[in-house]
Structure formats: C-alpha cells, structure tokens
Amino acid sequence: MSFQATAFAYLFPGNAMVNSLLATAYISIFPNLLLYFVPPDINTSSLNVLVSFAVGGLLGDVFLHLLPHAFLGEHGEGGEAVHVNEQKNVLIGMGIFGGLFFFFVMDKLMRVFNGGGGAHDHGHHHHHDEKKEDESVVIKKDTNNQEGLRQRKKTNDEKNQEQDTKKKDHNEIKLSAYLNLFADFTHNMTDGLAMAASFYASPSVGATTAVAVFFHEIPHEVGDYAILIQSGFSKKRAMMAQFTTAVGAFLGTIIGIIIEQVSRADTGEKDTLVVGEDTGILGTGLHPSDLVIPFTAGGFMYIATVGVIPELLQVTGKIQKDRRQALAEFASMLVGLSLMAVIAWNEGAA
C-alpha cells in the first residue's frame, strides 16, 4: 500500500457518511484555528501566492477528479469499455452549469445588496473619497483666504456633514462585512455538499476533494478574516464569526448525506421491482445524487476563475515588483495543480 493510500485510510477510516463528516471537520476547524496566528495586516503579496496555490489545487480537483468521475464514473478493471450516453452527458453538463449559475446568482445578488462593490472595494473607496473631500475643503479655503493660513476651524455644518458621511461609510462597511459572512456561509454549504457527494462516489474522490478544499479554505478564511478586521471587528469577534460560518459546511454535508441516502434507497427499491430497466432521470440511469458532483464542479470553477483569479490579475504598476509577484503566483498555481495531478495519477495506478 502506498503512502498516499495509507494516509487517506488513516484520515478517513469509516464509511462514506462518517468520512464526509470527518472531512468537513478537517476543512472547517483547522483553517479557522490558523487565524489565531495570522496578523490582521497580512501582506497582500504573500496572501496572493497562497491563493494561487489554492486555485491550482481547486481547478486540479475539478479537471482531474470531479469532471472525469462525473462523465466516466470510478475507474474499473483494465480494458473496460466506456458506453457513451449523450442524454446522460447533457444532464451532467446541465449540472455543471447549474453549479456555476448558482454561484453567479449569489455573487450578483451580494453585489446588488452591497451597492455595486465587494467588501474590499468599500474599504478602499471610502477612505479615498474622504481624502478627496478633505483636499477639496482645503483648496477652497486656500483660494478664498488670501492670508494662506494652514489650519482653519470648520463650521458646524461642515462638521455635521463629515460626521454623517463617516457614519454612512461605517454602516456600508458593516453591511458589506455581514453580506460577506452570508456569502461565506453559502460557500461553506457547497463545500459540505462536495464532501458528501465525493465520498459517496468513492473514497479516493472524496479524499482528493477534501485535500483540494482544505488548501482552498486557508487563504479563503484568511481573506474573509482580513475583511472583517478592516470592517471594525475585533480579532476575537472576527474569529468567532468565521467559526459560525463553518456551520454552513456541516449543514451542507448533512443535506448531501440525506440526498445520497434517499437516492440510493429509491434506486434499490426500483431495482428490486423492475430488473434490467434503465431508471433515473428521463430514463438515463442518472439519479439526483449523481448531479451533486457536477454541480460542485461548476461551483468550484466559478469560485476559482471568477471569484479569485480576477483579484490575482491586479498589478501595482511597479514592473519589477509585479514581475516577481507574477512569477511567484504562476509557480504556486502550478504546484497546486501538480499536487492534484500526483494524487490522481497514484489513485489511477492503485
């Protein structure tokens, strides 16, 4: 038995239900515990390198594990023929699109309720606007006053207006923080669904998905933690908020387990009633539980490509610094992909 198989057997010793719950605990508890050691003002460049590694792992899991399993199933004996069912492939493709579309809808609604920007945008733009307002006040006073005094007393109206602006900005930042927590809760539910669907598909698919999600959750939790700190949360309160969103992962896992158990029970009953009949959705032999992995793959694709990569495309304008940062991110992403490739290769040879 290889080291990889031994490690997975040690980490996931039970049946599909137990292993999916264990995996959810791993991906929820340990990344949040690491937040205690993370400084609130973590360096953006370092975080982006970690995010690039997570993106490589996540996309590696999608293209090397989830999608092949969704279309071809678990590998069997050597020389086994693959029977192509176009109708079944159409439904699987719709499941993939469903996962991507679900996250697009969630992302769009979050931006609508957040006033058109993300949590990061609020933090930067509000401070920038305040500086512009202050500069405009100083310029107006300098032009109107010929004596050119540097310090001037503001009128009561100006003070009240500034206080109202700061209060409004603070409320908007708080709103973005709470919306971000809700989005994180939904995201974690999808991770929980992925854990259940993967382990019910096979132990190897479940283990590799757990590894990919674990490495994705670390920078994800760190980024959300930084957003909460910037929004005025204390370190303790931000950590508690992140632990609260972890409930979503367990909820998603439980929902996934229920879907799998009900689907398998229905399949067993139909098989006993009618032997040899092609049951399932529209007679394709595909059952609702079989669409959870395609749905998860579509969600992971959206998270990695739309939710994360656009942030990695941002540059500072300093060529030397951006060049070093780009090379580090490229290498980190390839390392994440290579890790998933090695795991896939070894499980295929097992």
Would you identify the regions where 5 or more consecutive residues have pLDDT less than 50? Answer: 119-141
The ordered H/E elements are HHHHHHHHHH
Strand content: under 5%
Mean pLDDT, all residues: 78
Query: What's the end-to-end separation, in Å?
Result: 8 Å
- Overall, the morphology is globular
**Structural class by SSE content:** mainly alpha
Could you tell me the radius of gyration in angstroms?
25 Å
**Biggest sheet: strands, sense, closure?**
none
Number of strands: 0
Number of helices in the DSSP assignment: 10
Describe it.
The chain has helices spanning 3-11, 16-34, 44-72, 86-113, 119-144, 156-201, 203-230, 235-273, 292-312, 319-349. 79% of the residues lie in helices and 0% in strands. The chain contains ten helices and no strands. With 350 residues, the protein is mostly helical. The termini are close together. The model is unreliable at 119-141 (pLDDT under 50).
